[in-house]
């Protein structure tokens, strides 16, 4: 793809994003429904472009073992919006946000790399 094509596609994407964002906001959806709407948009884009956004399997050493994940999932958050909740009960979007914070990168990232965690969330969202 040339630089010009890249710039054009970026502009088109930005305009589409803005239009879709405005429409979703106008619908007054709650955050979970909004997230689901965006996932559906992504799925539609994948279908049209014949792409697969499934992340590649991370190396085994980077994923928590079943035992580690169970122990981690039963820990209780001691701060923030979900203080007092077990990690297993915290929405994935919040765990992803935590993973983006420098203080929490290690264990949260390894926990989020478990495919089972994402599959469970998809079932709960449907």
Count of separate DSSP helical elements: 6
Q: Compute the number of strand runs.
A: 0
Task: State the order of secondary-structure elements, H for helix, E for strand.
Answer: HHHHHH
**Averaging pLDDT over every residue, what do you get?**
77
Give a quick account of the main beta sheet: strands, pairing sense, barrel closure.
Answer: none
The N- to C-terminal Cα distance equals 37 Å
Structural class: mainly alpha
Number of domains: 2
- Shape from CA axes? globular
Helix percentage range: 55-70%
Structure, described:
It is a single chain. The chain has 126 residues and is an all-alpha fold. It folds into 2 domains: 3-49; 60-125, no CATH class. 63% of the residues lie in helices and 0% in strands. The protein is globular.
Write the topology of this structure.
Layout: H1 3-26, H2 31-49, H3 66-73, H4 92-100, H5 105-112, H6 115-125
Identify the notable features of this structure and list them briefly.
single chain; 126 residues; mainly alpha; 2 domains; 6 helices; globular
Short description:
By secondary structure, the chain is mainly α.
